Amino acid sequence: MDTQVNPSIFKFLNKIKDNNNREWFAKNKDYYLEEEEKIKSFFTSVFQELSSTDDLEGMKVYKIYRDIRFSKDKSPYKTYRSCGYKRATESLRGGYHLEITPDGSFLAVGFWQPNKEDLLRIRKEFELDGETITEILNTKDIKETFGGFYKRHSLKKAPKGFDKNHPNITLINKKDFILLRKFKNKEVIDKKFYKTVLHSFQVIRPFFDYMSSILTTNLNGESLIDN
């Protein structure tokens, strides 16, 4: 397994950007398969090492083919390669995401588009207690690695049933609970990138532990998981 991203992935993705059509892709299918094998090898290396410190259900390398059914942009191929790592069992919530793209690579952790039940449970918790999550996000490792919650994807108005003047309304208004770290191309192809990704995924564990405790209990602290 590869523990370093091959610089050739950026060249390939830039070619996709410049030739985003089925004719070019068909002629260069072997080129695609070669690059796909290399980046999958890196994603797999991350999965194997991360699995030694967290219980993972599996990894998913997302297909390069775009779903263009409801999009104005009919370009058939993505100009990035990405992978998700899902935590296992009901009690371990949250996920890891890694995306490689020219001049825009990043990793993300947290809870993307939670279902309405989970979202309401999180909001109710933050309505009662905003201090604990704030303290966790302000710990040295998390603050230095991620900075804080991704600031987009929040409601402009308070959700139904919540006071718009609540002191924790910024937390309550969030639709996703994501932390993100961006990388320059030179950082991605550096041999240190592998360890940087793993370290970033590992330091977020206190956040995952806390959010998992919220989503597996009711507001009285009683478990929602059948023993």
What does this structure look like?
The protein has 227 residues and is α+β, with helices and mostly antiparallel strands. It has a single domain (8-215), classed as 2-Layer Sandwich (BirA Bifunctional Protein, domain 2). Helices cover 42% and strands 15% of the residues. It is built from 10 helices and 5 strands. It has helices spanning 8-18, 22-27, 29-50, 116-128, 131-137, 140-146, 169-172, 185-188, 193-203, 205-215; strands at residues 56-61, 81-87, 95-100, 105-111, 177-183. It has a 5-stranded antiparallel sheet with strand order 1-2-3-4-5. Helix 3 (29-50) crosses helix 9. The longest helix has 22 residues, at 29-50.
Q: What order do the SSEs take from the amino end to the carboxyl end, as H and E? A: HHHEEEEHHHHEHHH
**CATH class, please?**
Alpha Beta
Q: Any idea what the CATH architecture is?
A: 2-Layer Sandwich
Q: Strand order, biggest sheet?
A: 1-2-3-4-5
What integer is the average pLDDT?
A: 96
Q: End-to-end distance, in Å?
A: 38 Å
Show unreliable segments: none
CATH fold description: BirA Bifunctional Protein, domain 2
How many DSSP helices? 10
Radius of gyration: 20 Å
Q: Tell how many strands the DSSP assignment holds.
A: 5
Query: Largest sheet, described in full?
Result: 5 strands, antiparallel
**Assembly annotation:** single chain
Into how many domains do the coordinates divide? 1
The helix fraction, in percent, is 40-55%
